[in-house]
């Protein structure tokens, strides 16, 4: 297995801190050219706007050459297996492959068969490590520490790779994490995922005294049964301004995007002063620069 | 064929026999004394047991000969110490008619180095709707009925199958999995599936069907057998059914007592099977069931798949692993050498256990029984090399694993089956 970035679970706190430290350096926009003449392939088997664009911009700011491929335009549609597709790309000698795939563990499976480092840009319902890193950077920007922060993560936890990566990262830094959602989207075993995790089906309980309220999209494309009607969902698990009165006075609202206004959060919350959603997007570039540099250089 | 097996420790659980003795085979059957000038097999220092029976294998023929054939599967069986195997009907076409049964019987007669007994489908196409032509298949040679690979979801259909099987003196074997509960699942549901982001198959999907079937077995009086039992509540329910005098039996597989769902962390599809590898408490319950007698037999669920099928993203891979060549090694290591059971009980689980479930006239060294013998060396150290497997497929999680204890000769009808010298275990 080569050193890529497959998930947060396998990272220690010092490694995460080093990436965040380098990300802070990259927060000031500019060109750095540390990866000149390096080739990075972005291979997206699932729809993505922000993550793919963000990785592309990050690579370009580092001076790397990038090629972006989406599943519909590759030979996957001609019946080629995933391993063969990757072997073909590896033969073109990229220094790293950034990959998103709908199957949990797809990059882990490939990493056992390929020599080129893989950066996981989201695998099924498993992990999305760069999202957790940019979320951490965004919280650090506002708070300076994650220790003893109360972070509520609300929504479709069962199908969320963002939730899993965030739980692993936040737990490493001593935050307390409340996971909240309707029963069908909140498996009870999540409590054992990492130290400091608690579960509730009651949104008010989750938000009470929270420092961070992280909302998740309802992943209809991954659900195989409808756990709750949309109207019912928004009524019991949609974030509205009045909820924020329960949180700490300076609490922030986060969302990995894409947001569905009126589905998991109201327009008013999305556009409020509490919302740091666009800061997350901005930090995504800095974090991905740090990750690509670490993996390639 | 005649043969005289000299000087081994003869263990025949069906007769409660355990002594140093000679075993004679005359004209392919166990005899009181050897025929003059019989060839001899020196079994000094070895264990002489009735031929091992694997009552649950997939030979993939007809229809999936790229993964296995009756010939290659039988060779793998012989390499693993089995003299008799029973093949499940999920071929293409499904073995749901006397025509397919006869084809398998005929192919086995010509090409198999061990005894091959087909198991017929319960329902047409194993679709769970309409009973197959069970009586005709019995005439053609099936030894049990099962829709293995799939459960019989409809309780009424299962009831009728049991009534039919009872009249024909056949055992009904069910692959217990409530498909509504397991739908889309790739591994055992628990902390590991949640951690890995893989969809879970809850133990309850097995338990609810075992419970239903036990009630139907009582209703119909049928002989009923749970295939590849893996969940602790299912084991407890089988024990309960036995205590009530019902004709209910169960088998488990070596991987269900040797491995847990913690093996799945690398998304290696060689750990993907149905039922899935369960958690530690289930494995303990399975081992307890083996010790207590709740579980009657060890069967491999040998399920070959071509490399291209297993070399995919975890969720796209088919279920199942090879089992014939590693079953003894795993059973010795995890059950006998681990101190859970005696070698006598181990032999019972592979001989009179499955023979009793299926009412086969085998699995013993009683005079007149078929001359099938498995010779064991409980101390032999060996390492499994799947690339030397007699199977056509390579989907085993046990490649490179070191074992202590193996079969050293497989004797079918008095004939020592030749096993390639480079065969997997040496």
Write structural notes for this entry:
The complex is a heterodimer of chains A (297) and B (426). Chain A is an alpha/beta fold and 297 residues long. Helices cover 35% and strands 15% of the residues of chain A. Chain A folds into two domains: 13-127 and 281-296, Aspartate/ornithine carbamoyltransferase (Rossmann fold, 3-Layer(aba) Sandwich); 129-278, Rossmann fold (3-Layer(aba) Sandwich). Chain A has ten helices and nine strands. In chain A, helix 2 links the parallel strand 1 (39-44) and strand 2 (65-70). In chain A, helix 1 (13-26) packs across helix 10 (277-296), helix 5 (129-143) packs across helix 6 (161-172) and helix 5 crosses helix 10. The radius of gyration of chain A is 19 Å and the shape is globular. Chain B is an alpha/beta fold. Chain B has a single domain (51-365, 380-400), classed as TIM Barrel (Alpha-Beta Barrel), CATH 3.20.20.140. Helices cover 31% and strands 22% of the residues of chain B. Chain B contains 14 helices and 18 strands. In chain B, strands 1, 2, 3, 4, 5, 16, 17 and 18 form an eight-stranded mixed β-sheet that branches. In chain B, helix 7 packs parallel to helix 8 and helix 8 packs parallel to helix 10 (280-292). The longest helix of chain B has 18 residues, at 203-220. The mean pLDDT of chain B is 97. Classes of the chains: A alpha/beta (297), B alpha/beta (426). The A-B interface holds A 9, 81-83, 101, 103-106, 108-109, 112, 123-127, 158, 161, 164, 187, 189-190, 192-193, 224 and B 183-184, 190-191, 193-198, 200, 266-269, 308, 311-316.
